[in-house]
Write a structure and sequence with these properties.
13 helices; transport; cell membrane; BP-dependent_transpt_permease; transmembrane helix
């Protein structure tokens, strides 16, 4: 048996990786930037317990201090380190993505699958409810839900889930309407497969690309919604850190400390931009894999 040159094997593995979805996304500067920022948020969340004390303990000798070696990004209105609070605030960002967007993905996909596949009266009723929710601006609907449930991170996550779910449901339903008439779906029905199995095995896999792109986009929307709620004092409550609440504090002390609002605002901008660029890169990578007509 002929031995394979290790360099050849490594080259083949490299080619195979570049041809995967992740490889194509990483080749795109937008995707590489987006993944890098998401990784930084995850890393910040992982190390955030190390900064809890600095984020909560005020330094009364350095209230609204400018950036310095002792406080790299300065301090807030009661002397807490801004960098430490940005790092601990990354936990909220990850919670929004994991809990709110994750829950909305499951609920929205299920609603869209049922509505698009069943059609008829079921589709009409579900879509009227979805349309009614989409008629409200996202933040207005989130504010209404939080006002009814009360302030706090838990209720903010529920509100964000509620406003993102119909958007995902609408997109999934549109895709299912076109997929349910495909030959393989008709064949599955003809041979008597249960609806649940048809949806999971023959419809849902064809939605994964669309869902990846749209969920990345909705994650940025969810982060902005949480930041807006916290800015208004309806999200996470003190002494816990939230980037939106920090921007609000910065707005109240704008003429006394520029750093208090600027750095958390830049963090929000960076993560939201990264997720939007990642969504674009995912969409491009998926389009590049679509077969072209000869």
């Amino acid at each position: 048996m002929t031995a394979i040159d290790p360099r050849t094997a490594n080259g083949l593995r490299s080619v195979r990786f570049r041809n995967t979805l992740l490889g194509r996304v990483l080749k795109d500067p937008r995707g590489a930037f987006g993944i890098a920022i998401v990784f930084l948020v995850i890393l910040a969340t992982a190390v955030s317990p190390l900064f809890d004390e600095a984020a909560r303990t005020p330094d009364t000798t350095a209230i609204l201090a400018s950036p310095s070696w002792s406080h790299l990004l300065g301090t807030d209105e009661i002397g807490r380190d801004i960098l430490a609070r940005i790092i601990t605030g990354s936990r909220v960002v990850l919670q929004v993505i994991a809990v709110s967007v994750g829950s909305a993905l499951v609920l929205g996909t299920a609603i869209g699958l049922i509505s698009g596949y069943r059609g008829g009266a079921v589709d009409a009723v579900i879509m009227r409810i979805v349309d009614a929710m989409l008629a409200f601006p996202l933040l207005v609907l989130a504010l209404t839900i939080v006002a009814a449930l009360g302030s706090g991170l838990h209720n903010a996550l529920i509100a964000i889930t509620a406003v993102v779910t119909p958007r995902i449901a609408r997109v999934v339903r549109g895709e299912v309407l076109s997929l349910r008439t495909r030959e393989w779906v008709d064949a599955s029905r003809i041979i008597g497969l249960p609806t649940f199995r048809v949806l999971l095995r023959h419809v849902l896999p064809h939605l994964m690309g669309t869902l990846l792109v749209f969920v990345a986009l909705q994650a940025s929307t969810a982060i902005l919604a949480e930041a807006s709620l916290s800015f208004l004092g309806l999200g996470i409550q003190p002494p816990e850190a939230s980037w939106g609440a920090m921007v609000s504090a910065g707005a109240s002390n704008l003429y006394r400390s520029w750093a208090l609002g600027v750095f958390p605002g830049l963090a929000i901008l960076l993560v939201v931009t990264a997720l939007n660029l990642l969504s674009d890169a995912l969409g491009q990578a998926l389009r590049d894999t679509e077969p072209t007509d000869p």
